[in-house]
Amino acid sequence: MSVSLGLPRLRSAGPAPSGAPTGAGLMDRHGRRATDLRLSVIDKCNLRCTYCMPAGGLPWLPAAQLMTPAEITRIVTVGVHRLGVTELRLTGGEPLVRPDLEDIVAAVRTTHPELPVSVTTNGIGLTTRAAALAEAGLTRINISLDSLDAATFRALARRDRLADVLAGAEAAAAAALAPVKINAVLMAGVNDHEAPELLSWALDHGFALRFIEQMPLDADHGWTRADMVTADQIRNRLATRFRLVPHPGPREGAPAELWDVHPRTPTAGTGAGDAPLGTVGIIASVTEPFCADCKRTRITAEGRIRSCLFSHEEVELLPLLRAGATDANLAERWRAAMWAKPAAHGMDHTGLDSPDYVQPERSMSAIGG
Q1: Span 173-183, mean pLDDT?
Q2: Which residues contact 209 (CB under 8 A, 6 or more apart)?
């Protein structure tokens, strides 16, 4: 597989591409409207997960290049008031590395009382901050957890912090950051056998589990199809202990396809097998892409617009803001960036085994998941 290292291309901030709307929301040329904003608050992380970062870490952005709470709030306001954003997810890196995360959440909540605001985190530090984040106005939380075995967790994350993550999930539940969602990435021969156990644990704790196919967004550019556990393989693993039934509710552009979880064998004469134990989601970005229904727009930690997680281009927004641009100026540039969004991420056209497929230069931590 070809890889292209370095920074993503910065697309010219000149006139909007031909046909770009001037008054609509974040439309693209393929009829999609982005309403879900994923905004990274930092690129730094305190774990070194093998599918994301090299063991030695990455060169972090200087603090001066990161958006301040006021700048984040301004960008969110442009998105909500002028471009139709209806949901905000704060990402990283690891958002809890920022000591002012509560200030960011509070500033957004004060400005937008009805906006759903969530955070994706590895959970380390939640034991002391979950209550404060809830008080600041956080709506809910996603916690990354790939294994319940301490040795396996240490091998994947390169840090011995499983106990901290488990305690963080409990703290989030106690702070009523519901539903607490758990994100799990399975690796072949490493933790894929834990799929049923992870689901059983999540159901017992009232957490909403989402399995995510490993994506070619690792900083080492060592992703291979052989190491990826596909959605179909995840379902087969879960079927050894549970019976999955497609969830009847509409997906509405959500990344996860939901399944109702039932006991594998109904309890005779009780009818217990008829009621689902809960749900499980599978996000199959690689093998079952959902690009046609994508509703996401992304802002990186240094304030660049990224139309697609797998994009090779970014458009500067923060320098324009710091130069004194009006909200209308910021909205125009954002619209133009999203108008140029590709129809798909490319994996479904060339295939990941094709020499023509080029992995994005940035890792997930630098993009913001």
Answers
A1: 96
A2: 181, 182, 184, 198, 199, 202, 203, 280, 281
